[in-house]
Amino acid sequence: MRPGKLSDSILKRTVLKQIKQQRSEVLCGAGIGEDCAIFACEDGNLVSSVVSYVVADRQDMIRSIYKATNNLATAGAEPFAVMLSIILPERASEEKLKKLMDGAAQAARELNLQIAGGHTTVSRYVSEKLVTVTAYGKVPTDKTYTTKGAKPGQDVVMTKWIGLEGTAILANKKREELLTRYPEYLVEEAASFDKYLSVIPEAATAVKSGVCVMHDASEGGILATLWELAESSGVGLHIDMKKLPIRQETVEVCEFCDVNPYELLSGGCLVMTAEDGNSLVLALQEQGIPAVVVGKITDSKDRMIFNGEEKRFLDKPAADEIYKYI
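The structure assignment produced for this chain is given below.
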């Protein structure tokens, strides 16, 4: 199988099809585009999300925690804790583990989270350091969101820019090579795009401003995110390619590395639907969060990308471009 997320077809027939047992306490469980489980509680809902990362350094650990908490934010939840399961290869040193935990502690401070526990072990069966982050959040019953709520006629809104996370990874990995072509300020800015990774602020504003569905862009890039949103809700899409926001630094880094920015890790970008997308954009902009309407939800099954006079169908998600380098 290809690296990265399972394809939709394998996920449906080999994973989701086997999940038959249902419990009334589970309000939202496994599904295409569903990054959280939602559990009924007496005073609201408990939301949980699990992500797994290969972590080479402390920055990878930070990204993994941001990804897990971003998933919670798209359900309308306020993250409060994470649990960490870390598996180390035999060659790993205590110093390497300390650096990973330094990264985890930094992310916890920045996001006001408690690291509530987990498990750490050394295994002869792994060759890289692996972390699984389980994040927990809480949300009022009437403020809970899933990706199944997109309806025809709603606007599609995006925050910030596509490819942020992937750009930061590539700029750091290929820093010296990039400096042979581009000025230092451009490379340093691209490498610092991790500062945009959290979507918690925009999700909090969106909840107060008429949002219907939220889905954070991540693996597979913006095109995979749009596909997952439409697939989960069983709707069509019309997306204006020219309106998809992208930083010039991303354009330059992706051109140098020969990767497609539209299929590149896009953590930090939140995709939403709303009955009045322009009002949602205005509310976000008032909080200093860049946002734009990029398209519409339609009542057909067609998922279309328009680029001027050209149009094409949105393909099923491909392997993320970042796997050319990691």
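Interim note for the steering committee: The radius of gyration is 19 Å. The mean pLDDT is 91.
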